[in-house]
């Protein structure tokens, strides 16, 4: 661990050095330069903008290019204690203590255990990828963290390769275009019949499907991956089956042979620490917080970012983080504040093949009404008791003038 005598630390402790954790540090330091802050992270704590990971390969930006500041430099600049390569193994909310274990040493005989106390604790530990049993983690990549992204990028730098992406949500659809632009052959596989099908109605997703296929991405909708195995030559065999329950004659498709498989099958929050702390937690959406203060139900414990939920909805977008961090900073420092006013951010697909923007809390099911429907634009509204709860605007890309 990077701090001496960590058991003497107190003040504010933050678990997680992603965007959420660093935003909290920035917000606190903007109002109090001296209060002790300890940041605990299982990695080295480098500051980088995670949404760039789905665009960086085609832009030829390495993992190092995406790092804005190393963890050590950022901690020094902020005047905080950084406990890098350190995991929190337990939270005792009654005594307000954390038990730590070095992430660099897994052998208990050589592990450096320590406990530290906190006055206020912020859970900013994010969410981690879901790997269905059919996707063995040792054969399948994810791009939820810069370290794994860097490893994948090094492999893809060897020339044009065949890549299968499992999951056609926002991230999977963005990565598919990014890899295609970088010169790779891309197959996108999803349980649903179109990309973004859990978020948008069929009339909208049909346009997205047409746009990505027109680029040269192969989309296999309505298909479930049943296994990934390695061939003797090092390539991967991806077995998948149709999900059309209405046909008795459906047989498994001919397996795909690819060089890499990327999982984009959703995120989940580890329940170990919330459970240990007695924090209210939902397996589906994460840590439950009080919206105006972002406090959990446990005294002196807050949550922010991917690991938390408000009103039963997971908060997994970057845009609200600054406002969330400002609220936590004010509340921790005992400053008056109006309370966090949670407003779902605009959701924007970063693909160039088609412009997709959504506001509110879009979901596929519901009373979607068409407002505009032309070759160039589709606008739809989701009505809930005659009140617009979400909108989606889909536009054809603007072609550059020749």
What CATH calls the topology of the largest domain is FAD/NAD(P)-binding domain
Per CATH, the class of the largest domain reads: Alpha Beta
Q: How is the quaternary structure best described? A: single chain
Residue ranges: pLDDT <50 for 5 or more in a row?
A: 1-8
If you compute it from the alpha carbons, what radius of gyration comes out, rounded to the nearest whole angstrom?
Answer: 23 Å
Estimate the mean pLDDT confidence. 92
Overall spatial form: globular
Which architecture of the largest domain per CATH? Answer: 3-Layer(bba) Sandwich
What is the assigned CATH homologous superfamily of the largest domain? FAD/NAD(P)-binding domain
Structural class: alpha/beta
Q: Helix proportion of residues, in percent? A: 10-25%
Residue fraction in strands: 25-35%
Q: Termini, distance in Å? A: 57 Å
Number of strands: 28
Largest sheet: 5 strands, parallel
Total separate domains? 3
Main-sheet strand order equals 5-2-1-9-21
- Counting DSSP H or I runs of 4 or more residues, the number of helices is 8
Topology diagram in text:
Elements lengths: L11 E4 L3 H11 L7 E4 L6 E2 L14 H4 E3 L1 H8 L2 E3 L2 E7 L4 E6 L10 E5 L2 E4 L4 E2 L16 H11 L5 E5 L3 H12 L3 E5 L12 H14 L2 E3 L2 E8 L5 E7 L13 E3 L1 E4 L3 E2 L3 H6 L3 E2 L3 E3 L12 E3 L4 E3 L2 E2 L6 H13 L13 E3 L5 E6 L6 E7 L3 E8 L2 E9 L7
């Amino acid at each position: 661990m990077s701090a001496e005598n960590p058991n003497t630390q107190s003040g504010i402790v933050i678990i997680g050095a992603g965007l959420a954790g660093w935003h909290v540090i920035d917000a606190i330091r903007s109002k109090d330069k001296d209060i002790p802050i300890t940041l605990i992270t299982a990695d080295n704590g480098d500051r980088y903008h995670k949404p760039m990971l789905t665009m960086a390969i085609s832009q030829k930006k390495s993992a190092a290019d995406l790092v804005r500041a190393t963890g050590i430099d950022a901690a020094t600049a902020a005047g905080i204690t950084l406990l890098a390569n350190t995991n929190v193994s337990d939270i005792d909310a009654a005594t307000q203590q954390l038990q730590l274990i070095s992430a660099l040493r897994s052998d208990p005989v050589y592990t450096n255990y320590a406990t530290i106390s906190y006055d206020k604790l912020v859970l900013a530990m994010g969410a981690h990828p879901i790997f269905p049993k059919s996707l063995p983690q040792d054969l399948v990549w994810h791009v939820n963290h810069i370290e794994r992204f860097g490893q994948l990028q090094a492999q893809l730098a060897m020339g044009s390769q065949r890549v299968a992406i499992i999951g056609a949500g926002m991230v999977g659809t963005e990565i598919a275009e990014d890899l295609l632009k970088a010169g790779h052959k891309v197959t996108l596989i999803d349980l649903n019949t179109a990309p973004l099908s859990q978020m948008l109605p069929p009339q909208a997703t049909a346009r997205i499907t047409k746009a990505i296929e027109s680029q040269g991405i192969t989309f296999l909708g309505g298909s479930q991956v049943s296994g990934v195995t390695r061939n003797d030559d090092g390539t991967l065999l991806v077995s998948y089956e149709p999900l059309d329950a209405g046909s008795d004659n459906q047989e498994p498709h001919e397996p795909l042979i690819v060089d890499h498989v990327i999982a984009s099958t959703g995120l989940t929050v580890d329940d170990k620490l919330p459970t240990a702390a007695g924090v209210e937690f939902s397996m589906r959406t994460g840590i439950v917080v009080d919206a105006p203060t972002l406090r959990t139900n446990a005294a002196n414990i807050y949550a922010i970012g991917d690991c938390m939920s408000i009103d039963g909805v997971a908060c997994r977008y970057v845009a609200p983080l600054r406002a969330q961090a400002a609220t936590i900073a004010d509340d921790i420092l005992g400053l008056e504040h109006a309370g966090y006013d949670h407003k779902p951010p605009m959701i924007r697909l970063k693909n160039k093949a088609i412009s997709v923007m959504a506001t509110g809390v879009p979901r596929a099911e519901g009373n979607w009404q068409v407002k505009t429907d032309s070759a160039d634009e589709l606008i739809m509204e989701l009505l809930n008791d005659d009140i617009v709860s979400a909108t989606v605007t889909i536009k054809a890309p603007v072609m550059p003038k020749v």
